[in-house]
Specification:
mainly alpha
Length: about 170
Amino acid sequence: MSKSNGNVFEKFSNWATKFTGSQTAFMGATFIVIIWAATGPLFNYSETWQLVINTGTTIITFLMVFLIQKSQNKDSKAIQIKLNELIAAHEKASNRIVDIEDLTERELDQLHHFYETLAQLAKDDADIHTSHSIDAAQRNHDYKEEFFKRKHEEWLQKKIQQKQES
């Protein structure tokens, strides 16, 4: 895959994210605050002196929110793609989990509850190598549904026979 990207904002945001998370940026910000604090007596701790640091930090914070969000979105997308690849590559993993980040919060809560149940089943298993998956759970559900339908039909037939005999 090509790492070259013609988008100026993309290049700038990558650079800014790396730089602002560096030791150099932290040291620079600390230095600026120390210089600002040291100049307080020089400016008699005036409102303008206070306004300089307040305005500067507010503007930087405002802009950083957007850079951080862009970086977070990109990282999140990359992680999702990597996880999707792992799911797709693993023969026993359920492919229905690929791209679940587009589900609603309620749907994600339902899946979360399902996986909590699977985790409990795994804890209860004597064999730690036993696998649980959505597909296995679906097969179990389908089996149980067919089994109980058949049992219910047998029960109904018995009831009908009992009525006919009486």
